[in-house]
Design goal:
By secondary structure, the chain is α/β, with parallel strands linked by helices. It has helices spanning 17-28, 91-102, 125-134, 137-152, 169-180, 231-243, 272-288, and strands at 49-52, 55-57, 63-71, 77-83, 106-110, 157-167, 186-190, 218-223, 251-255. The chain has a single domain, classed as Alpha/Beta hydrolase fold, catalytic domain (Rossmann fold, 3-Layer(aba) Sandwich). Strands 1, 2, 3, 4, 5, 6, 7, 8 and 9 form a nine-stranded mixed β-sheet that branches. Helix 2 links the parallel strand 4 (77-83) and strand 5. It starts with 16 loop residues before the first helix and ends with a helix.
Length: 292
């Protein structure tokens, strides 16, 4: 799997100063990204929640660890798979799970990179890229299917109310999962890659390639200033949806002044207004599609 950067930014781009600042985090890694400058990172407590770290059977029978946050209140709750960025299951992803649990969801974040290592502890992007590159298309689908099976086996889950959301690397997985699994009722993809890169190996499908296979509606949330996912790619996905008749009535929302990673509150690219609006849209999307 070829990755020029986590989002595939061509190396010859000449980004502006703000983009350089945001992109610098991909060079130093998540472990070094948290600093006084990022002190605004949201921290959600676990009061009223149950936090668990189970394992389930992922692709090829692998015992895949996960982080789960769910309401302590008894009952059958809707559930959301949370797909991580390139940094793995770090503090931001766990906090996102707790935010969803506070909203009444069972949130599970599978550790897709566990087989190869923990990128959240690394500062060398080359090493992070090696780990990310091991999680190919078949593994992404197999691990997501395992997460769905795990949720459907839990007594506290409303088994017909399942959704998926993901960020960056995970945003692409959201589109692919909704193209694969009929058990999913909705997806929310935050700035996930839509189109493959020239020369990527091995060959694999990307969201635009399987737009006609969508089995659940996806809400795509993208930044107009994203240097790695240009608007031409967003328009290509819109065209693919239209060509397929957009049977699932998927939608793409673009925040014109936002960078890649605008929901990630630990990055300089964080856009509080766009992040809040996107989060509200996501929850409304899940509710409108029966996952609430």
């Amino acid at each position: 799997m070829h990755l020029a950067t986590p989002e595939g930014t061509p190396p010859d781009l000449a980004p502006n100063r703000r983009t350089l600042l945001a992109g610098s985090i991909f060079t130093i890694g998540y472990a070094a990204a948290l600093s006084p400058a990022q002190a605004s990172a949201i921290e959600t407590d676990s009061e009223g929640l149950i936090i668990e770290e189970p394992s389930f059977e992922g692709h090829a029978g692998y015992a895949l660890p996960a982080y789960v946050a769910r309401p302590a209140k008894a009952g059958h709750h809707p559930a959301v798979i949370v797909v991580n960025e390139i940094f793995g299951i770090h503090a931001y992803i766990k906090d996102t799970c707790r935010r969803l649990a506070k909203a009444g969801y069972v949130a599970i974040a599978p550790d897709y990179f566990d087989r190869a290592g923990d990128p959240s502890t690394l500062q060398d992007f080359g090493e992070i890229r090696k780990i990310v590159g091991t999680a190919g298309y078949e593994q992404q689908i197999g691990d997501t299917g395992g997460a769905l099976a795990y949720l459907q086996a839990q007594s506290y889950v409303a088994h017909k109310k399942l959704a998926i959301t993901g960020f960056c690397w995970g945003g692409s997985v959201v589109w692919l999962a909704c193209e694969e699994f009929s058990s999913l009722k909705a997806g929310a993809a935050w700035y996930g890659r839509l189109v493959g890169q020239p020369g990527a190996t091995p060959p694999r499908p990307w969201p635009v390639d399987r737009a006609g296979d969508l089995k659940a509606p996806v809400l795509g949330l993208y930044g107009g200033l994203d240097q790695g996912i240009p608007q031409v790619d967003v328009e290509a996905m819109r065209a693919a949806l239209a060509k397929a008749g957009n049977k699932t009535k998927s939608e793409i929302v673009v925040y014109p002044e936002s960078q890649h990673g605008f929901h990630a509150d630990y990055r300089p690219s964080y856009d509080a207004v766009a992040a809040k609006d996107g989060w509200a849209r996501m929850l409304a999307w899940f509710k409108a599609n029966g996952v609430a």
